[in-house]
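user: can you give me the structure for this one chain? tokens are fine.
assistant: on it. calling the predictor now.
[tool input]
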Amino acid sequence: MQGMDLALAQIADRVRTAAADQTPLRIRGGGTKDFHGLALHGEVLDTRVLRGIVSYEPSELVVTVRAGTPLAELEATLAEQGQCLPFEPPHFAKTPPDAATVGGMVAAGLSGPARASVGAVRDYVLGVTLLNGRAELLSFGGQVMKNVAGYDVSRLMAGAWGTLGLLTELSLKVLPVAPAEATLRFECNQADALRKLHAWGGQPLPLNASCWVQDTGTGTLYVRLRGAVAAVEAACKTMGGVRMDDSAAVAADWAACREQTLPWFSDRAQRPGHALWRLSLPPTAPVLQLPAAAQPLIEWHGALRWVQAPEAAGDALREAARAVGGSASVFIASSAGASSGSGQFGLKSSALEQIHARLKHSFDPAGIFNPGRMARAW
């Protein structure tokens, strides 16, 4: 504990000095999501020294963990107790030293294939401890769901990309692993896949995740069911399709979908100048007319659509998404030097811009934390 207190004190001293000198700091854990954002500026402040599980109560479905703890380490500990982070956060780790951290998971706020059915990262954040831009150690929330009087600051940190403070400790809600799971495969075009997903969405089915992709000219919809044994077995009988029996291979495919290592994602390397676009749409949105006849990869029961297209196609993609009540943003830029996140971090009204600016000034008055990551102005 003394070593951890010393590490935290050293980080606080560095924040205090940076605020006094107005030196930008780039808060970084494993760096696995450095590809995303408008810009990376400042001296690197590594959080991985803040490592370890502080407390874990499996019977209470709550874990408190330091922000620099490797995400894989937390997931392994939960798995030993038959529990998990149900929103399936992506790691995006390319090399062993660059392991995703729990703090980075919350700061990025990214969720995996099950997000549409179980909720997002922010829905499982119970409490946070952070250093603000004055080097003050602040705690918000707690270890139960109903603990908020006033503004829910702890969940505000999910998806803030470290611009509001340096996360030091987090309390998360976890859930038991579902007793039964099955994946069904359907050969169908995009329109038929969306129709099936929309119809199933109105029925009491244990839908957990879905993915439609077109490989080698054939469209295929994969649907993962999770829940009670009886519910999963009944759904398999009524929904049709082909049940995939190789559980290890199926699990690997869903992990590849989460980590964006499926062949569909890898094919972008053969398309120079193409960015990976993220379209967030209402789940009932129809097939979109996309530039250059691009075929999307569709997740979240129709609500998340990935598209490979040049960044010059941005206006057309944004208009197509806006027309159905959604938005489009660059998730991975076409080149290493370009910025991602365009559109995702853009605010649609001056009122929202003012709210964000006030929050930023309140938590980080000197503007030292991750400047330019979410907004060019701060």
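assistant: here you go. Residues 322 and 350 are 19 Å apart (CA to CA). Residues 2-21 form the longest helix (20 residues).
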